[in-house]
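We treat protein structure as text, and this decision shapes the records that our systems exchange. Below, we set out a record of this kind in full and without editing:

***
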Amino acid sequence: MSLKSLLIHLSPSLLSPEKYRTFLLLTCIPLLSLFLSLFCWNLEPTVSRDGLLYLELVQVWHDHGSFQAVLEYWPQFWIPPFPLYLMKLLTDCGIPAEAAGVGLNIAMGCCLPLIVYGIAMEITGKRKIALCSALLTALNPSMIELAIEVQRDMIYLFFCGLLIYFLACGIRRQKWFYWVFAGVFFACSFLTRYETLEFIPLIAFYFLFLLIAKYMSWKKLLINASVFLASMAAVFFLLIHTMGVQEHLFGSYQKYYLQKWRLLERVCLGREAKK
C-alpha cells in the first residue's frame, strides 16, 4: 500500500461505503488511544525514576542551550540524545518539560495504530486484518503504559514503525523513493535507541533472499541500497550537527555496548557458578 493509496483510503469523499467506514474507523481508533492514554495518566500521573532524569536533562539543555551543559550535569550520559532533543524543542516553545515529555509520547502513541494499519495493509492487503491490528495496538495495555511514560520506548516504536512501513513499501513496490524515507527513519530510530542497528543484518538477509528468489535484480538492489544508505547518512549527520552532539555520540555508543557486554559476562559467570 503506497502513500498515495493510503491518502485515498483516508479521504472522506470516497464513493465506496466500505472505504468510508474504514476512514471513520481510522479516525476513531487514534481518538480511542488518546482517550485511554489521558484517562490512565489522570488515574496515576507519576513519572518513573528514569523519566525524572530525562526531564532534568531536558530542562538543563533548555536553560543553557548547549548539550555540553547536559554532559557537565550528568557525565555518565550514554543514551542517544534525539528523544531528549525533541522534548527540548517543545520546551523551547514554552511547554513545561513534563508536559512536553508526556505529550510527545501520547501523540506518538496515538499515531502508532495508524502506522500498524499501514504495515498490515502492505503485508496482507486485507483491510479487516489491518483494522484489527490497529485496534489491538490502541487497546494494548503495554502500549498505553508506554504512551504515558516519559521514556524513549514509544518514540522508538513510532520511528521503527515508520521504518518498517517504508521498508515494506520499498520491497513490495520496488520504488526508490520509499528507500529514502526508510533511510530517514532508520537514522531517527538509531538516534533514539542503538538497538536499531540490529535491523541491518535482517535487511541484508532479506536483500539476499530477494536476489536468490530473483524478485529483485542486482541493479535494482544497488540503487535501493545506495539510496537507503545515502539518505540515512545525510539525516544522521544533519541531526547530530543540529543537536551539537558530534563528539559525544560515538563515545556513548561505545559505553552502551560495553555495558551490554559486561551484563552478558555477569549472566554467563552467574550460570557457571550455579553449575
Observations:
- The chain has a mean pLDDT of 84.
